[in-house]
Amino acid sequence: REVLACQYRIESDLVVTIPAGSRFFEQRILTEGIDTGSRIQCDIYEKYARTDSAPPIFGLAVDLGTTTVVARLIDMAGGQCRATEAALNPQTRFGDDVISRIAYAQSDKEFTELHETIIDCINDLAAKLCKKAAVGTNHIFEICVAGNTTMNHIFLGLPITQLGQAPYQAYSLDARDVPPGELGLKINPAGNIHTVENIAGFVGADTTAVALATDIESAEEMTLIVDIGTNGEIVFGTKDKLYAASCAAGPALEGARITCGSRACDGAIEAVVINEDDIDLDVIGNVPPHSICGSGLIDAVAVMLELGVIDRTGRFAEPKTLGDKLPPAILARFFEQDDQPAFRLAGAADNPVLLSQKDIRQMQLAKGAIRAGIKLLQQKIGLEDSDVKRILLAGAFGNYIRRQSALRIGLLPAVDAERIRFVGNAAAAGAQMILLSQQCRDQARELARKIEYVEIAHESDFQMVFADSMLF
User: What is the pLDDT of residues 446-457, one digit of tens each?
Assistant: First the structure.
């Protein structure tokens, strides 16, 4: 039944559903990645093409993320992408991150709920894609799914409890091929569902797909791949030796736990720059700002550092000490809220979009986790920042941040900005390669075996490196 939320007394646990028509924003989800078409032989198509009177044969490449799900409808004969759809992962209502979902799924009933929720999501995306391309879902014969280890296990119906307990081991690291009927996926019943190899308990098949798409196994120069999300995955090395690690950045960079934070949606501040006398903002959708997303958060912190609003420890300066150093418009942005110093980015004084001292601390925790992971892998390999020749930023968040801001706050190794390259949704690109090609499936298997996982939390100086990495 429909009720007014402000007049409903909550007396027990409940689920609140907000109809799509009542939602005032839609998250912007990155669907595009690097072009890998020239490297693919579409030989998986052959096993279906041999069927008498074979219909048009399509496949689905799925990037199964903790926060978002991206699906591409692929012509299996030529490898062309016919349509792309994306959605917020509906499992987010059970928890923002994999740990909270593992904690939720403590009974068969709750686990089944998680599993069926993601199956329904993929079925819905498949139906929308086929409608766009004017084909039936029975024309989909092959699906390739790449997700982190927890998402992979929930999708397949494999146990996940052990992923939430030391030593955080996966039930299975192997690729799997499963009939669609076994999972309840509504495609051609003669088809196949292929999941990509995981690397470790917290470095999953999506990282394998990213490593494949970026061709890191051929890298002559020292290369760092960073896929920044709620869990940040890092791959470091060259063709001779590759290392991987995972760092629990938390949801701050996706807007959670930030006073005015949000995901990337209309009305979210996505960029902040200094002008002559004040700051300028870029807002998604060119509408009045109501929040700030991850890329805007990094920009804002970089700007606040540059202006002296905060120091390298993250502490707010006293406005009176900056009176002769900052323009009046900047000084007017200082204020207090709930006995905390804050900095107003937009909006009126009674309804501001702001960053508080608490927000800066949340940002430092997320940034510190990622930078500590990178530093500990550097120590493992014996590298200085100057030894890093390429940094590849993967994923939606990495695609929208500004290089200079990421360097200014110390999120990445101190390299020339020209060495940083954006590779988009490389997990989806890798999933598409694996969907189409047996050779790519073989490469993915070898890559997952070749990459050495490093449990950075077990490194003896983890706490010291993490504390140091929180500094700007």
Answer: 999 999 999 998
